[in-house]
Amino acid sequence: MKLSFSSEDEKFRAEIAQWLSDNLVGEFEQLKFRGGPGDEHMFPEERKKWEQKLAQGGWTCVGWPTEYGGRGCSIEQQVIFNEEYARAGAPGRMGHIGEGLTGPTLIAFGSEEQKQKYLPGIIAGNDLWCQGYSEPGAGSDLANVSTKAHFDQEKGKWIITGQKVWTSLAHESDYIFVLARTDPDSKAHKGLGFFLVKMDQPNIDVRGIKQITGTCEFNEVFFDEAQCDAQDIVGEPGNGWAIAMGLLGFERGVSTLGQQMQFQNELNQIITAAKANGSHQDPVIRQRIADAHIGLKIMRYNSMRMLSGGGNNGELRQEALIYKLFWASWHRDLGELAMDVLKAEAEILESAPYNLTRMQSMYLFVRSDTIYGGTNEIQRNIIAERGLGMPKEQRLIKNS
């Protein structure tokens, strides 16, 4: 694992730092430190414009190969980009799913036609994507998906019917990638397809799920014979599971650095609040702040370690298995720390319309971190079975 940076890397750092300083002004000034967990509903249109501003400066998809429109940045430079993005207080990325998941997946597994069709819109910051994986009966157990897809020879289209749930920012997205069953008689991870679907069609219904924060970042998405072109399946029918797992590798990849950027901003806000109200003088609070700082550093170094040996097909080292469990638990604890730092103010909303403060909203939102993307219990099973080679958990068999 390499932790130092070359002189060329430091020139790159100065370049991105200067660009952010020059451009996070005017209409974008209000976006500083906004759009993180529990705050994703804020300034959606302005943050879309920010994606396009990044694109104009050549700062989207910095890690993509140059032949596909990226900068071809090294891992070290991608780390630097995220560090400086955090330091400048730049907003949460609306294009994260497209840039961090869809694009790398198409580069690794997609056809040239698919790359030419979809990658330019992501690079330009024009096309936003969401993720169609989880279902009411297939959350952590993703292989249990029941959404179905069949090919209509007469129309020359794939027809998709089913439901996805907990789809982040589906109401703001232009496209969705969908894991669906192409073989109706198949079970588990066999017989699946990975589809690229346009959201703006009458056969797709997006319904917001109101959270305890009062906002609707998550959605249900209903497909009632939704359509996509024959060429919009990635890989072969029945091979969707391999594509889906490759994508999850990218989710545990460089995109984690952007997530840590948001965590650092939240920790900084908590420290500022502790200094302002005197909580920093409490030795227990001081120790918990120190522990949070240490945990975030561990998170960063483990990310560097797991990225140092990965390939370009989403495959990561075994260290990646612990990442979701670690950050979800850490972030949950950070929310509790925020409320303890605020003390009585954590229970108070100052005046009408009684909107939650950013720290209150963050605390409530992070309760979901240990559930979505695979619960902590599922993550422990994955570590035990895949990482340590332990016997699989016994499953109860229901009597028919």
UniProtKB/TrEMBL annotation:
Coiled coil: none annotated. One of its GO terms (molecular function) is flavin adenine dinucleotide binding. One of its GO terms (cellular component) is plasma membrane. Residues 238-387 form the Acyl-CoA dehydrogenase/oxidase C-terminal domain. Residues 7-125 form the Acyl-CoA dehydrogenase/oxidase N-terminal domain. Belongs to the acyl-CoA dehydrogenase family. This is Acyl-CoA dehydrogenase domain-containing protein. The lineage of its organism: Bacteria, Pseudomonadati, Pseudomonadota, Gammaproteobacteria, Alteromonadales.
